[in-house]
Design goal:
Number of helices: 10
CATH superfamily of the largest domain: HAD superfamily/HAD-like
Number of domains: 2
CATH class of the largest domain: Alpha Beta
Number of strands: 6
Helix content: 40-55%
Largest sheet: 6 strands, parallel
Mean pLDDT: 91
Order of helices and strands: EHHHHHEHEHEHEHEH
CATH topology of the largest domain: Rossmann fold
Radius of gyration: 17 Å
Distance between the termini: 41 Å
Strand order of the largest sheet: 3-2-1-4-5-6
Shape: globular
CATH architecture of the largest domain: 3-Layer(aba) Sandwich
Low-confidence stretches: 1-9
Length: about 230
């Protein structure tokens, strides 16, 4: 499955200098969604479960708890547990082998560090796994804070994670830029009163998501072009 191709967005650069930039992790900075999709497919095939890609794609950006609930709507509990266990084994091997970074992420992080803009990760992934991924990919030293799954009561699309990150960095929510690939993440950012820039990965934004009126670009390189002019001052 290829990355969604979007026409260049006619979005103006940011109208304010951000006090912080908050990053999602999977599918935005790390090329992990495709790896996980492959693990789901392989695990389902090995267990002879008839589950299509639409189910996996509907889970993008959601917490583990919600994803497991979606599986339980399709499968009995012992099959859910077998699927989760096998998928976890396959994905562990992928993570340990190293997952590639998305183009432009290191350049954007370097720019923000150079300009003194605080940076945080806000992810639905549980903290041990999030820190493992960020560490193995070499991203962890680039961030001032990590808000992970379990750090807040309500996951995305609730705003709790982004609000906690802003508070941790001492930034006003209205002066925070959020970089996200998924619709739940964009909704979380908007609910927090922040400015999201969406860089879609496996799931292109549908009409409902586009109607939210936020910026949508095709890469982190394009996101940088929106952010950098606001840092000039």
């Amino acid at each position: 499955m290829s990355t969604p191709t979007l026409s260049p967005a006619p979005h103006p650069p940011l109208a304010f200098a951000p006090q912080a930039v908050l990053f999602d992790m999977d599918g935005l900075m790390i090329e992990s969604e495709r790896a996980l999709l492959g693990c789901w497919r392989q695990a389902a095939q090995e267990l002879e479960l008839a589950l299509d890609d639409a189910l996996w794609l509907s889970m993008v950006g959601l917490s583990d708890r919600i994803c497991h609930e979606l599986l339980r709507e399709r499968l009995v509990e012992d099959r859910v547990q077998a699927l989760l266990q096998r998928c976890q084994q396959l994905y562990d091997a992928q993570v340990e082998a190293g997952l590639p970074l998305k183009p432009g992420v290191l350049e954007l992080l370097a720019l923000l560090r150079e300009r003194g803009v605080p940076r945080a990760v806000v992810t639905s992934t549980r903290r041990p796994r999030a820190l493992q991924k960020l560490g193995l990919c070499g991203l962890l030293p680039h961030f001032d804070a990590v808000v992970a799954g379990g750090d807040v009561e309500r996951p995305k699309p609730a705003p709790d994670g982004y609000l906690l990150a802003a508070h941790t960095l001492g930034a006003a929510p209205a002066r925070c830029v959020v970089l996200e690939d998924s619709a739940p993440g964009v909704r979380a950012a908007l609910a927090a009163g922040m400015t999201p820039i969406q860089v879609p990965d496996l799931v292109p934004p549908d009409a409902t998501v586009r109607a939210l009126g936020h910026r949508i670009v095709d890469s982190l390189l394009a996101a940088r072009r929106l952010i950098e002019p606001a840092l000039a001052g």
